[in-house]
Amino acid sequence: MTAREGRDKVVQLVQDSAQQLDVTGWWARGTAYAAPCEGDPDNASQYQYAYWAPEGDDHRADAKKMAAYWESLGMTVFMTGEDTDWPVVYGSGGPVLRASFNTSAVERSYRIGAIAPCSPGLYVEFNREDSAARDRGEVLPGDDVMVPESEIGEKFDEHRRLAEEADRKKNQ
């Protein structure tokens, strides 16, 4: 798998995973980016990508849905905290190296992230090429839902506000 194929697979997995849940408002905190490969940082790279959204109404059910979906893709899945209100699902294999679904991310958010297998090439070069493509006006996989860094605090404030409203409705 080339690095760009890996990028496309992590973006696709994250986007498809988000569609398995009855949660709206998914967004990316940055672009899909190349990072040094954990096993060979001087010669190989691996793309990473993540989505964020306001938390759903039933964290346990959402974690179970995510685990079942990833298992259907041939991923090896395990869950931590399944007996709590805030489970986390981890998957490996299938279309990506590994992925995670966190039901208790910052400011009462959900987070889905994935990392591609290592591919030959230097991450700085891939990131430089991706930036040049964006400068030419190209929209790369995953760019369409990216929130500018200056607006991220507002997004998390919105997540917290939505969660607090849901709490008030439950307690009425």
Structural summary, described in words:
- By secondary structure, the protein is of the alpha+beta class.
- It is 36% helix and 27% strand.
- It contains four helices and seven strands, in the order αββαβββββαα.
- Strands 1, 2, 3, 4, 5, 6 and 7 form a seven-stranded antiparallel β-sheet that branches.
- Strand 4 (88-93) and strand 5 form a beta hairpin.
- The longest helix has 19 residues, at 152-170.
- The N and C termini lie far apart (53 Å).
Number of strands: 7
Helix content: 25-40%
Low-confidence segments: none
Distance between the termini: 53 Å
What is the tally of helical segments?
4
Protein topology:
Blueprint: H1 3-18, E1 33-36, E2 44-54, H2 59-72, E3 75-80, E4 88-93, E5 96-105, E6 109-115, E7 119-120, H3 123-135, H4 152-170
Antiparallel strand pairs: 1-2, 2-6, 2-7, 3-4, 4-5, 5-6
Keywords:
172 residues, seven-stranded antiparallel sheet
Short structural summary:
The protein is of the alpha+beta class. It has helices at residues 3-18, 59-72, 123-135, 152-170, and strands at residues 33-36, 44-54, 75-80, 88-93, 96-105, 109-115, 119-120. Strands 1, 2, 3, 4, 5, 6 and 7 form a seven-stranded antiparallel beta sheet that branches.
